[in-house]
Structures are given as structure tokens and as C-alpha cells.
């Protein structure tokens, strides 16, 4: 077994968005140095990295050179070509490993893997032409057609009700392959975050309850106010997926609880996740520190909830009339404002989040929503 990677070493993070930035800040607090690779020279993590490489994720030579100067490579984005990760792995351990990232990074591959390994997913079909898409929609309607690569925050997704809509959606998305999912009657959305070390030790955070608008996360709160049996079921399901994928690092599992009581996997992500930002406030360890522990093979903290905590995303839409006025939010007891230092605010772009802690999950959710309301009033 290899030795743990101790503070003083350098962690290379592929992807310099807010997830890379927040992971890097946790790593720095623990005593590690941080390098970042991102195609955007003005990426959010630049400010916290001692070295930032500006290169596309598929630039094999750049990724290899990046890996040769760090002690371990991790990622904040799964859309990294396998060839690049494999090249990096010749120079430093890459966690999670290329095979796991490859399985998860394509929606069709991921969904097919989940289904073939017996994990519960909604009805779906993988299609590669407008005609196939039309047929799938006729069989499963109503549906959501989703692109298989590169979609996030509900992008590359179209809701359709009939055959004709299915064909149009495929053309509109313009990808060679799509997943057609039956539109589910969802009662609740939750997610589970699990960390896993190379030796197999795993630890999960209390599930979050998540609220989306237009396919994008609006707010999230933990612990999710669902009963103990459901919580256990969700955590066991998430851990079994994490273990089966052989993840070293983090795996977020997004789950649907349907109106008829089924627990189904929506999708997974092998990295920190927007629905666990609240762990910085309410849990005994943050998802970011836990990631560092996992990839450096330090003992994992068994996360406990210290206090219920919620987050509310701040999208670029809040910047339409310039920088929002945070004065009232800052003044609210229990509320904090987290900004990612991104230079250009665009509608739908995640610019930061608000967090709030309170005595119950419901109160934390209400408080963070009230804080948000002060920004848009
Ligand atoms: P993100 O990056 O925010 O996780 P994404 O673009 O990967 O989003 P999904 O997670 O697949 O997209 O879907 C976003 C949201 O759309 C879900 O959280 C859910 O609210 C809704 N949704 C997705 N699939 C279905 C479905 N089959 N039936 C009903 N609602 C769905
Ligand atoms: Mg999702």
C-alpha cells in the first residue's frame, strides 16, 4: 500500500471553477500547495493556486506536464478526456481513476452502467437518431431528452410529449447521442455524498434535500427532512454505487423519490457537488476537506451534522443591475455570503451562494431564502 500524501505536498486540480477553488482553499488550510489546470485564464481557482495552467482539458502534453509537477491529481469536472487522464496517471496518482471517470462522464454510459449493475433508474432509452428519439418518446412519453455529454444545470435538455417533439428535440440538441428519460412524478429530490479511500474506507454525509427551478439547483438543505429508513436506504445505495465504481475521492449521487414512493438514481458526479456546499457550515468536515483526505489517503472524518444548514445559489441573473447589495444579507444572524470571484456575470452562471444555519432544516432553508429575497427586492 502506498504512503499517504502529507501536507507540504502539492495537489493538482483539473478544473478551476468554484468547486476547484473551494477544494483548493480547503487543501491550503490543511497545509497543501495547489496547482490548477483550466482552459479559462480567468478561472475562479486562479486566486488560490500557486500555479495555474491555462490549457484545454484534452491537451495531453499540458496535462502531462501539469501532473509531473504535483503529488496527486484530482478533478472538479468529469468532462476530461480519458487520454488526458491516462497520460496524467503516468506521472502522479489520479483520483478518481480514469476508468471511473470514463463510466460517469457520458450520461448514456453512466445510465446504462447503473441499470446493468442493478441500480434503480427510471425508464430510459439511449438514441442516436431523430427517428430513434421519436420512437422512444412515443413509447415513454412524457419525456426529457438529454444530451449525453457536457450537459449541466439543465442545459442540453428538452421536455417532450409526443413523437414529433422527440424528433425535433434530437435535432435541436444537435448531439450524436441522447438519453430519452421518462418524465417522472418527483415528490422529493435528495442527494448523497460519499467519500472513499483507496483501501475501501467510505463515509457519507447526511443527505441533502434539493430544489431545482428550470433544471438548475436553486437551494439545498441538509439534513434532508426525510425519515430515517429512507435516509439509510439512500446512503446504502450511494455507497454501493461508489464502491462498485471504485471511486477514490468523492461521489455525489442525485436521487429522486417519486410520488409513488420509489427511490431512483438520477445521476452521479465524481467530485464535489453544489448540493453539499452547506457542509462548510453544518457538518463536522466539509466536502472539500473530505475530498483532500480521500485523495491523499488520510483517515476520513465520519461526517456528523453539527447544525442544520442550507445554501441558495447566486446566479449571474442577480448581477443584471450591477453588483447585488449584500448589506442586509451580511447583517442576518446565521447567514454568510460566498462569492467565487468570477469576473463576468452572465445569466445562469453560478457566481456564488448564500448559506444559513439554524435550529432545524426548515428554518435554515427559510433563512437562506429570506436572505436571497433581500438581494432581489
Ligand atoms: P445538474 O448539473 O444541475 O445536476 P443536469 O444538467 O445534469 O443538472 P439533471 O440532473 O439530469 O441535469 O436534471 C436536472 C433536473 O431536472 C433534475 O434535478 C430534476 O429536477 C429534473 N429532471 C431531470 N430528469 C428528470 C426526469 N426524468 N423526470 C422529471 N424531472 C427530471
Ligand atoms: Mg443533476
Quick take:
The protein contains 12 helices and 17 strands. With 377 residues, it is an alpha+beta fold.
Describe this structure in words.
- The protein is α+β, with helices and mostly antiparallel strands.
- It folds into three domains: 10-94, Rossmann fold (3-Layer(aba) Sandwich), CATH 3.40.50; 123-182, Dna Ligase, domain 1, CATH 3.30.1490.20; 186-376, D-amino Acid Aminotransferase, Chain A, domain 1.
- The chain contains twelve helices and 17 strands.
- Strands 9, 10, 11, 12, 13, 14, 15, 16 and 17 form a nine-stranded antiparallel sheet that branches. Strands 3-2-1-4 form a four-stranded parallel sheet, sandwiched between helices. Strands 5-8-6-7 form a four-stranded antiparallel sheet, sandwiched between helices.
- Strand 9 and strand 10 form a beta hairpin.
- The mean pLDDT is 96.
- It binds adenosine-5'-triphosphate and magnesium ion.
- Residues 122, 144, 146, 151-155, 181, 183-184, 186, 189, 212, 215-217, 254, 266-267 line the site of adenosine-5'-triphosphate.
Defining traits:
377 residues; alpha+beta; Dna Ligase, domain 1; D-amino Acid Aminotransferase, Chain A, domain 1; four-stranded parallel beta sheet; globular; binds adenosine-5'-triphosphate; binds magnesium ion
Strand content: 25-35%
Per CATH, the architecture of the largest domain is: 2-Layer Sandwich
Total tally of structural domains: 3
Bound molecule types: adenosine-5'-triphosphate, magnesium ion
CATH class of the largest domain: Alpha Beta
Structural class comes to alpha+beta
Per CATH, the superfamily of the largest domain is ATP-grasp fold, B domain
What Rg, in angstroms, do the CA atoms define? 20 Å
State the shape: globular
Amino acid at each position: 500500500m502506498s504512503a499517504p500524501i502529507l501536507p507540504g505536498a502539492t495537489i493538482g486540480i483539473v478544473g478551476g471553477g468554484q468547486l476547484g477553488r473551494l477544494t483548493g482553499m480547503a487543501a491550503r488550510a490543511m497545509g497543501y500547495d495547489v496547482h490548477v489546470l483550466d482552459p479559462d485564464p480567468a478561472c475562479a481557482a486562479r486566486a488560490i493556486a500557486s500555479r495555474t495552467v491555462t490549457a484545454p482539458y484534452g491537451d495531453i502534453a499540458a496535462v502531462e506536464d501539469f501532473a509531473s509537477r504535483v503529488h496527486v491529481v484530482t478533478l472538479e469536472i468529469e468532462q476530461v478526456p480519458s487520454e488526458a487522464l491516462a497520460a496524467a496517471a503516468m506521472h502522479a496518482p489520479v483520483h478518481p481513476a480514469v476508468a471511473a471517470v470514463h463510466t460517469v462522464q457520458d450520461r448514456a454510459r453512466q445510465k446504462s452502467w447503473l441499470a446493468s449493475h442493478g441500480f434503480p433508474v427510471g425508464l430510459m432509452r439511449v438514441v442516436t437518431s431523430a427517428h430513434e428519439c421519436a420512437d422512444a418518446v412515443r413509447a415513454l412519453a412524457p419525456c426529457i431528452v438529454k444530451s449525453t455529454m457536457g450537459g449541466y444545470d439543465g442545459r442540453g435538455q428538452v421536455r417532450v410529449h409526443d413523437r414529433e417533439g422527440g424528433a425535433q428535440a434530437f435535432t435541436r440538441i444537435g448531439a450524436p447521442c441522447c438519453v430519452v428519460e421518462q418524465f417522472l412524478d418527483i415528490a422529493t429530490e435528495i442527494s448523497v455524498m460519499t467519500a472513499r479511500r483507496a483501501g475501501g474506507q467510505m463515509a457519507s454525509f447526511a443527505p441533502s434535500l434539493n430544489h431545482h427551478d428550470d433544471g438548475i439547483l436553486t437551494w439545498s438543505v441538509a439534513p434532508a427532512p426525510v425519515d430515517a429508513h429512507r435516509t439509510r436506504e439512500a446512503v446504502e445505495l450511494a455507497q454501493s454505487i461508489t464502491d462498485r465504481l471504485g471511486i477514490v475521492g468523492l461521489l455525489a449521487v442525485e436521487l429522486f423519490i417519486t410520488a409513488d414512493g420509489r427511490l431512483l438514481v438520477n445521476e452521479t458526479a465524481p467530485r464535489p457537488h453544489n448540493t453539499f456546499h452547506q457542509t462548510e457550515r453544518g457538518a463536522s468536515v466539509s466536502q472539500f476537506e473530505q475530498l483532500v483526505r480521500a485523495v491523499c489517503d488520510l483517515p476520513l472524518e465520519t461526517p456528523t451534522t453539527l447544525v442544520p444548514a442550507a445554501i441558495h445559489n447566486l446566479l449571474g441573473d442577480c448581477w443584471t443591475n450591477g453588483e447585488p447589495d449584500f448589506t442586509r444579507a451580511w447583517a442576518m444572524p446565521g447567514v454568510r455570503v460566498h462569492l467565487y470571484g468570477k469576473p463576468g456575470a452572465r445569466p445562469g452562471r453560478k457566481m456564488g451562494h448564500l448559506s444559513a444555519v439554524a435550529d432545524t432544516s426548515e428554518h435554515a432553508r427559510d433563512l437562506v431564502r429570506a436572505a436571497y429575497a433581500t438581494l432581489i427586492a
